[in-house]
Structures are given as C-alpha cells and as structure tokens.
Amino acid sequence: MNAHHIATVLALHFDPEQGSAYWLERQHQLGFDVRREIRGRADFHRLGPMEVSALRTRPVTDFIPRALHRDLATMLLSETGGTTGDPCRRVFAPEEFTSAFIQPWLKAVAEHGFPHQGRWLFVGPGGPHIIDRSARSMARSLGSLEPFTVDCDVRWIKRQVKGSAGFTLYMDHVLAQAMNIIAHQQIDTLFTTPPLLVALAALMRPEQRQRIRGIHTGGMHLDARTAGALRTQFPRAVILPGFGNSLFGVTFPVRWDRPQPGGAPLAPPPGLEHEDVFQVGDPALWLQLAPIPASGQADQDLSRSVAPGQRGRVIVHRLDPSFLIVNLAERDTAIAVVCPDGDLGLACVEPLAFATPAGRQGVY
Predict the structure, then answer these.
(1) pTM, whole model, 2 decimals?
(2) CB atoms < 10 A from the CB of 158, how many?
(3) How confident is the model at residue 357 (pLDDT cuts 50, 70, 90)?
(4) CA-based nearest residue to 329, from 346, 352, 360, 310
(5) Are 197 and 234 in contact, with CB atoms under 8 Å apart?
(6) Is 68 exposed, middle or buried (0-12, 13-18, 19+ CB in 10 A)?
(7) Mean pLDDT (whole number) for 300-308
(8) What is the DSSP string of 56-80?
(9) Rounded CA gap, 197 and 203, in Å?
(10) Assign residue 147 a region: left if phi > 0, alpha if psi is -120 to 50, beta otherwise?
C-alpha cells in the first residue's frame, strides 16, 4: 500500500462534491482535511475506529463515492456471515474483487502446487456471501468447470446449539447432499470450512479420499492439529487454507521452503514450524496487528502495532475506490511473524473471546 495509492483513494472518498457520504460525515466530525493530513499508514489512527454498526445498518451507497454511483450496476455485493452480530455489507468493483480474491489465490496456487483442471465441490454459503462467487472464479481460473455446490445457510446454523436436534439435522442435510455429489461426480478438489471438511472425511470411503488432489479451506481457522489429521486422511491432496472474510478478501500461507535468492530456504520462527503464516498479497490491503485491549469496553489502540512474536488484534485497512475501510477492528487475533520478504505475516489465528458471542461460531 504505497503513498500514491493512499492519496488517490482518499482523494476520491473525501471529495467534497463527489465523495462518499459516510466518510464526508466522519471528516466533519474529525475537524480536519483528511486529504491533506493523512499521508500514509502511520496516520490512519487519526481517523478513529470505523463503526461496525454503520456497516450493518447504513445504506451501502453511503460508503460508495458519488462519482462511482454511475457504476453501481457493475459492482458485486458482499455480506459477512454474522458471527459477531448482524451482517456487515460492502461492494467490490470487478477489478477489486479480482485483486482481493483471485490474484492472491493464483499466486498461492503457483507457490504451493495446487492442482489445475480439477472437478470441484464447494460446500459453503451462497446467497449474499461473496465466497460463493470467489469459489466459482477460483475454479475457473485453474481451467476447471465451475464447482458443484451445496449451499450452507451459515446464519441459520449459528442459531442452533451444537449437539442439538436442529444442529444435527441441518448438518446431516448438508453432508448428505455433498456425499451424493462425491459419489457420482468423481470429485478431486474440495473447498469448504474445516468443520465441514472433518465431517466429510469421516463419511468418505478410503478410495474417495485418495481421489482428492486439492483442498482449499476458508471461513474458519484450520489449526495445526486438524491440518495434520487431514493430511493423513487425504494423503494425495495439497491442502491450502485461506484467511480472510467478505469485507477484505483472502490471504494465503507463506511457503517457507521455497528457494531464496542467493541463499538457502528460510525456516519459520521456533515454535511455529507447524503453523500457517498468512501474508497479504494485495496492495490495497493492510492487516495491522494492534495491541489487544483488556476488554470489549476498553478503547482499541490504533496507533501502534505489536512486535514480531507478539499476539495482536487484527485491524483491517482496505482502500478501494468503490469502498474505503480504515481502522476496522476484527474478531480475530494473530501472532506477528516476519516473512521471507521482510513483511509481517499472521500466524496462529484465534478468535478474540469478547468479540465473538458464545455459540455463534457454527461451521463458518
């Protein structure tokens, strides 16, 4: 995220006549000219925390610069799954969607050797969730037919208590549809969430698991222990987890063993050898790791980032022409790790207890 990109996006959203209503209101509250005084990432904290409630309740067009309202018909709507409350909403222009979801995917595919031209099964949310669109685009970007799909209403299952009749019946309903496709369509590539993948693995026959060459997980963190068990169950598969959401896109793990220019491959820091380290590959995105507040009532410090090896709260900054997100405190925490290229990555992603209501995690 360079200075020119920052200046260009801020100039658009804070244009007095053609900017976005939400950010122009924020500028009035702040009392200074954002276009003149915000020069780089180090200044973002001066804009204060972004209001999650606004993303849940305000018309989505309040966040789109008036200069771009003529392009509304080309934009893609996206909504979150509602783990922390009512869903948040945003839009992506087509090129922003590609930058947020597809270009990082293709880079990760090349680095990790994810298979091309597979026959995909996607088990996850459709409807307002952009992950469905990204699944289709990811498959097609590798020369595949669009995925066979099983729709999963993640908001409904979040309302069911784990182990309850409602939860069990819904899981049985989703898994039965998935197994029908696996039985008849020679599936060799899976895209789903870790809990659904574990459940599918338990139902699949050994020869069906042997057929799987590629697995992409998203929506929830894939911990090292679960990943190890899945590698045993799917011995031929490249397992490629992603970390992201409907608001900022997706990031993928660093491949530590790839050759470095003029030297031997680097190794992850001690203690993190079996953990995925996610690195941002999008110039419009910065995932800051800020100090974790003591409670949900304490103010979030946005002016500092934690040092490598420390755990911090994920703060999202995504600067797109169609939609500006700055200082959005996420539900997740992670450990800051120095990646081979010197940038910081995120390891050991965990939900922040006071930001995730009990029983709302579900399967996505």
Answers:
(1) 0.91
(2) 18
(3) low
(4) 352
(5) no
(6) buried
(7) 94
(8) HHS-GGGGS-GGGGGGGGG-EEEE-
(9) 10
(10) beta
**Beta strand spans in 258-354 (E):** 277-279, 285-290, 311-319, 324-338, 344-351
The band of 86, judged by pLDDT with boundaries at 50, 70 and 90, is confident
Here the tokens at position 240 are: 């490629």
Q: What is the Cα 202 distance to its own chain's centre?
A: 26
CA angle 29, 33, 38 (to 5 degrees): 105
Q: Identify the sign of the CA torsion 212, 215, 221, 222.
A: positive
For residues 150 and 98, is the Cβ–Cβ distance under 8 A? no
Mark out the alpha helices in 120-253 (DSSP H runs). 131-141, 154-158, 165-184, 194-203, 206-211, 224-233
User: How much of the chain, in percent, has pLDDT values that exceed 70?
Assistant: 95
End-to-end distance of the chain based on CA atoms, in angstroms? 29
pLDDT digits (tens, 9 = 90+) for 140-160: 999 999 999 998 887 787 777
Opening angle at CA 100, ends 200 and 4, nearest 5 = 160
Q: In what order do the strands lie in the sheet with 249-253?
A: 243-245, 249-253, 277-279, 344-351, 324-338, 311-319, 285-290
pLDDT tens per residue, range 161-197:
788 888 889 889 999 999 999 999 999 999 999 999 9
pLDDT range class, residue 364, cuts 50, 70, 90: very low
Return the residue matching tokens 């507040």.
293
- Is 353 or 190 the better-scoring residue by pLDDT? 190
Average pLDDT value for the chain: 91
